[in-house]
Amino acid sequence: VTLAADTNEDMKEWVEDLQQSTVNSLNERTMDHRSAGGMSSTGTTRAGDDGDTNLGDGTRVPKHHLRVDAYGTVDELSSVLGLALTHGLEEPLSGWVREIQNDLFDVGADLCLPGPEGDELRLTIEYSARLEQRLEKVNARLPALKSFVLPGGKPAPAWLHLARTVCRRAERLV
Fold this sequence. Notes:
By secondary structure, the protein is mostly helical. The two termini are about 35 Å apart. The model is unreliable at about 1-5 and about 30-35 (pLDDT under 50). It has helices at about 10-30, 65-85, 95-110, 115-120, 125-140, 155-174; strands at about 50-55, 60. Strands 1-2 form a two-stranded antiparallel sheet.
């Protein structure tokens, strides 16, 4: 980012504009079904400074725990999908991606609850069926692949390629 601020006043104005832009963006794209739990307004809890973190049931585990890695990777996938959205995905694809992001919050919530509390999953077979229907709809318009597709070209498809690889990693962790 190039910053052309000649004075402290310019810098202050730029920071205020950035803060307002961030607030506006967050208000436009909030989760439709989850709260932030015990997070502060900065998105941190300060409870993991010792190298451990809480699972959804309060159990303390090391931050390198497989379960934490799995839901962290699901969170990363949602972030990569968000980057693809910033590059102008058209409807209906952009709406589908936002739905998938919300579904991924459910996946993360399921992954962070071990034991009996985690037995009642939010993610049901209907989620998978909806996703498979959409994939079939999109793939029906595509010619048969005769070779591998290399990531690149335009930004949105490149981000979606990265999302695909992060998704595969998440699958391996689960």
